[in-house]
Amino acid sequence: MATETITIQVEREAARAYKAAPADDQKKIQALLSIWLKGLAGAETEALKEIMSEVSKNAQARGLTSETLESLLKET
Prior knowledge:
By secondary structure, the protein is mainly alpha-helical. 74% of the residues lie in helices and 0% in strands. It has four helices and no strands. The protein has helices spanning 12-20, 23-42, 45-61, 66-75. It is globular and about 40 Å long. The N and C termini lie far apart (32 Å).
């Protein structure tokens, strides 16, 4: 399988956890992310909306507010 390197921005805590993980765990994380991204690319519009809704609910449950999101988007 051909691979390609991409750069994504994540929360600082997530980056620290990834960097601190053993190499085997990093490979597993990469594989899971790859599978998830391929799934998004092949998902029908409704399925994508469901995924985005679930992600939104999880973010809100973890304390992400619309103000925080707007602030984060302005930083990029």
